[in-house]
Write a structure and sequence with these properties.
The protein is α+β, with helices and mostly antiparallel strands. It is built from five helices and eight strands. The chain has a five-stranded antiparallel beta sheet. A three-stranded antiparallel beta sheet has the order 4-5-8. It is globular and about 45 Å long. It has one domain: Alpha-Beta Complex (Peptide Deformylase), CATH 3.90.45. Bound molecules: nickel (II) ion.
Length: 178
């Protein structure tokens, strides 16, 4: 496995819509390696999610750590994800991004979602997510459409450097970059 280079804000790859994948392509050895490399890269940089465009691969794939019912974290790949909000409830919370290092800001998003995607064998699956994991998959799916979390901020009042976030705001929540 390899650690991949992470594209930072300003690199055009982060602003392009990524292309959808065919299940047969998902099953190829190079794609399986890309998934494993993205998981390793996400862990190396202490992130909770990482999308294809963030590692210069403009394809509809992200990996994300999803908390399980027993409290453990399972890192899963999502291919061609499609998100549908459940209900009208929204939540405002802090987000960070490996492509916008050491910055935090608050974003309002739907609280509950259903995500449909293909797994690493190209098989469809679906899961309902509530709260933080729902936020993470929305943030990652945005990356596949060239959208960064800054674009989702209603105001920039909460835009905060990591040091100041740790000093003044971290007790409110402690989120990882995605
Ligand atoms: Ni991000």
């Amino acid at each position: 496995m390899s650690i991949l280079k992470v594209a930072r804000m300003g690199h055009p790859v982060l602003r392009k819509a990524a292309r959808a994948l065919d299940p047969t392509e998902v099953r190829t050895a190079p794609f399986q390696k890309l998934i494993d490399d993205m998981v390793e890269t996400m862990h190396e940089y202490g992130g909770i999610g990482l999308a294809g465009p963030q590692v210069h691969e403009s394809v509809r794939l992200f990996v994300a750590g999803i908390e399980q019912k027993d409290g453990s974290l399972r890192v899963l790949p999502f291919v061609n994800p499609e998100i549908t909000p459940v209900g009208a409830s929204t939540a405002e919370d802090w987000e960070g991004c490996l492509s916008i290092p050491d910055i935090r800001g608050k974003v309002v998003r739907p609280r509950n979602v259903v995500i449909k995607a293909l797994d690493r064998r190209g098989k469809p699956f679906e899961m309902e997510l509530i709260g933080y994991p729902a936020r993470v998959v929305q943030h990652e799916t945005d990356h596949l459409d060239g959208v960064l979390f800054f674009d989702r901020m209603q105001t920039f009042d909460t835009l905060t450097f990591l040091d100041e976030y740790s000093r003044f705001w971290a007790r409110e929540h402690d989120e990882d970059e995605a």
